[in-house]
Design goal:
Blueprint: H1 3-18, E1 31-36, H2 44-59, E2 64-69, H3 77-86, E3 90-92, H4 96-99, H5 121-125, H6 128-139, E4 142-158, E5 172-175, H7 179-187, E6 191-194, H8 200-205, E7 212-214, H9 216-221, E8 230-246, H10 247-252, H11 255-289, E9 293-295, H12 300-307, H13 321-329
Parallel strand pairs: 1-2, 1-3, 5-6, 8-9
Antiparallel strand pairs: 4-7, 4-8
Length: 330
Amino acid sequence: MGATGRRAVLGGVIGAAALARPWPARAQAEIRIRFAHSLSTVEPAHQAAEFFARNVAQRTNNRVRIEVFPGEQLGSGRDVNEMIRQGANVMNITDPGYLSDFVPDVGILNGPYIVDQPAQFAKLLDSDWYRGVDQRLQAAGFRMVMMGGFFGARHMIAEKPIRQPADIAGMTVRVPPNQMWIETFRALGARPTTVQWSEIYNALQQNVVQAAEAPYGSLWGSRLQEVRKVISNTAHFQAILGWPMNNGFFNRLPAEIRTILLEEGTKAREEQTRLTLEQEAGFVDRFKAAGVQIVTDVDIAAFRRASEPTYRAFPRWTPGLHETVRRILA
């Protein structure tokens, strides 16, 4: 971890200690919350975070000021989640795979081909099953200000087309330090290699890894088209994001502030989804103009079959979890 990350973790520890003391009256006059993520500023997820920060400031007459820190300025996604768990007044853009470090069952929301269309996530998030998961997240220290903003279908970027699982057999594929990604690409026959997103450009440029995967916006935002020229539309994950903050910190906020955060989180979820879907075609056009080949004749059914063993690789899941989720979606 770099110096910035160490300072961020130290800030998280200090923030956690501060929660043990009652807030002085003057501290309630203004509430500052840092909002971290690992993404670039051109991506819909960042734009939705800024949208949220503006709306919260407006509705609270600037009593609540949310400052967005992109590009891992406060540390890696995993580090920031740990800061939140310890009690820091920080929010994070994260995904269910990372949250599964604390509540294993939530990771299935990030599973390969778990849904066919992003709209299906609404069915899962409005279920008794997810309400139970959310209660466990709160018990683990996380209050989800937002869950379910569509991040985009994740596709492969490499030096050759990937149309079927055999095309990535033995290929080194960059994945985050996240068990869902690791198990998915093992099932597909690749060699998953963990690299932080901030280091992915150099890892591809230096051939530490042969391929990477992400939604269009993240691929473009990190300029990966400069080091690889083929994107294959595998759509192996239909990715959603969530925004956790510390549950104890959240519960200590005034009731009207809690309501505003949750209401604006819901609006931001819809804004992120809208922006992601709206901007997708534009990103494709940019890639093509940059000389990137977009491969659309991918055998999705073969990838779906090959990824099935992923769902048997999580012994900490509640027994029958995959079947439960399938019943909700049916």
